[in-house]
Amino acid sequence: MADERGCMGFEAEILGQRVTLETRRGLFSPEHADRGTLAMLKQVHIFPGMRIMDLGCGCGIAGIVAAKIAGEENVLLSDVDPVAVETARRNAERNGVGGVRCVVSDGFRDIEETGFDLILSNPPYQTDFSVAKGFIEKGFNRLKIGGRLYMVTKRREWYKNKLISVFGGVEIREADGYFVFAAERRGLRYANRAPRRG
Asked: Is domain 35-193 in CATH 3.40.50.150, yes or no?
């Protein structure tokens, strides 16, 4: 139930971390932890010291859980929506990881950091795939060698083909009606630009 300012919230336990989150009307999944995000997080292995980005962070759920494990100084949350970023910032403070960096950015446009171990994203479902295309192509260059991009969607084929064309391969798992994709950066160039062998 929202208050007069449109604020609502929920609690969840994810990867052994208890989080209390404020949300707002108009933000993605304002009344409960999104099932797709939960499905993705169950596939991710997070360790202390990892550098992690929550791309399209919404209220900050994935980034805050990551920060509780990897360390707040190692986590960046970003979203194109300033309300989402401000909400994520407040939620990070509320959950004891106020040292995370929160940035308003359209994809990677206003983010300079590179060398991430993990980029986590639940991209918007748009029929033209333009947002997801930018996340995948630009995300490749923001990962360190061996770093992994995780995405969760309801659609399979386009994401599979795009991730393979950029990363050279992808792991796909089905969970709770969603597809969770994991693609690892193995080289300096996109797979479809790499020289042919043989």
From this structure: yes
Predicted structure pTM score: 0.92
pLDDT band at residue 5 under the 50/70/90 scheme: low
User: Residue 48 belongs to what H/E stretch?
Assistant: none
* Residue 81 to residue 24: CA distance in whole angstroms: 12
The answer to whether the beta carbons of residues 143 and 119 sit under 8 Å apart is: yes
- The token pair at 11 is 């609690």
What one-character-per-residue DSSP string does 105-164 give? Answer: -STTTT-----EEEEEE-----TT-HHHHHHHHHHHHHEEEEEEEEEEES--HHHHHHHH
Average pLDDT, the chain: 92
User: Is residue 2 over pLDDT 90?
Assistant: no
Q: Find the helix packing angle between 157-167 and 130-142, rounded to 10°.
A: 30
- Please say whether the beta carbons of 154 and 179 come within 8 A: yes
The pLDDT assigned to 28 comes to 74
Give the integer Cα–Cα distance in Å for 20 and 39. 19
Could you tell me the CA-to-CA distances from 90 to 57, 98, 117 in Å, in that order?
13, 8, 25
Question: What are the sequence ranges of the domains in the chain?
Answer: 35-193
| Mean pLDDT calculated for residue range 16-43 | 88
> Edge-to-edge strand order for the sheet containing 75-79?
101-104, 75-79, 52-55, 116-121, 143-153, 178-184, 171-175
More confident residue, 156 or 25: 156
